[in-house]
Write a structure and sequence with these properties.
By secondary structure, the protein is α+β, with helices and mostly antiparallel strands. It has one helix spanning 14-26, and strands at 5-9, 30-34. A two-stranded parallel sheet has the order 1-2. The radius of gyration is 11 Å and the shape is flat.
């Protein structure tokens, strides 16, 4: 079973952007959700 990772992040979050860069380097797929554009996601 393969699960998809979702990262909920505002555009200004340095920790979140660092995490996403690490996921990219590791080849781990994820979907990023901007919680400022989608307040229901927050």
């Amino acid at each position: 079973m393969r699960r998809e990772l979702t990262v909920y992040s505002p555009p200004w979050c340095g920790y979140c952007h660092r995490l996403m860069k690490q996921l990219d380097r590791a080849g781990i797929a994820y979907t990023a959700v901007d919680i400022e554009r989608d307040p229901d996601a927050a």
